[in-house]
Amino acid sequence: MTDPHTDPHTNPQVDPQADPGTRPDPLDTALRLVRAQAAVAKRFDASLGGLHGVSLSDFTLLLHLGHAPGGRMRRVDLAGALGLTASGVTRGLAPLERIGLVSREAAARDARVAYAALTPTGRERLAEMLYTARKVAADLFAADQWSPDDLDRLAVLLARLGGTAPDQRPGAATARD
Hints:
By secondary structure, the chain is mostly helical.
């Protein structure tokens, strides 16, 4: 039986001419991850954009708000959760505010604090977007190509790189929805 981690037929990162003890090239691995992320984002963008008029970035922002208590977050916390700057969040929220999916709320006790909140329309549209996103994800990880063990392993490896679900904080335990 062959080891799928070292077999060049099952692991395209393995150079069949290389010494079996040689570690795969970290740069090649990182670039493959970047290309895979771009391909996944393109699939989500096409479906979400075509059906709902939003990008994957918009959907991710809405999803974070949807998981937040009361459907709202301080803008600075949203920036941290998305890995963006405060101005990046402001730019991302502006079109969502214009189309009525998100509103800006001031904190009752401190006018310097601003919240981004899902509107009722935003909640409805997010539910529709979730249906579409789940279909895209099911197509990406079709059962005939990805076993549950594959998905679990991939989730663990991505979490090791800092990839967490929108409803999880970095370092929190990961679990499949």
